[in-house]
Write a structure and sequence with these properties.
Length: about 280
Amino acid sequence: MVSSRRDQLERTLAYLISLAAILLTLFPIVWLLSVSLKTQRDAFAMPPKLIFEPIGDHFLGLLERPGFVEAFMNSVNVTALGVFFAISIAIFASYGIHRFRFRGKKLFGVWLLLAYMLPEFLFIIPMFVLYQRIGWYDTDFGLALVYQVHSLPFAVWLIRSFFKEVPRDLDDAARIDGCNHIRTLRHVYIPMAAPGIAATAILTAIWIWNELTIALSLTFRETQTITVAVASFRGYTSINWGQMAAASIVAILPMLVFAIFAQKYIVKGLTLGSLKG
């Protein structure tokens, strides 16, 4: 009887904590959505207006704002290019770290972790000077390439952990059948770790899409991303809160929808090998 009550209390507490986490997560998004659908006067009315007549002027205004649609497409291009770089290189790097023995292997792994932990401002100024000289400043390629400082170590660490879960017997069998390392990687490791690779790609895409500091420093007009475009709604004398909220919703929505549809791949990838006996 005591055990049953304790279990019920634990379940109730778990539900309450989960509910609180959901509410705290959804509140900023709901608030942004309400401001984007209200007039400036209704948005800051006290007490807050819970019942109001929604308007779509702020969202329509985004289409007329110079550079906003281009910034959205720039984020799509940079994210796709950055994920391609990170995953393509990380697959080969992870296989090499996992499969081969070489001097400095542990040091190399530590360096990857340190590179991922480096604050962004340490390399923004040197990269700004370099990009200005070689012509990569304010380009999709240059921005996607500099994102590899953080996204590539992250991808290597994750994919390497997924490759560790591939049974060594399959590797040995492939080698006996005459497969070289490239064919072994292609036909054994990549198919077995596909959910983990997909999860890594999704998490990398979300990070690149949401990044602001590097994009703010290494872009101007041609490659301005959606996060920079949202930040630009803050003027020197005033802030268009309605359009800023609408722009924030537009920036959030693609990754939100993407994460919802890709949830099963994230969960499957991150739990790869957890049930291995």
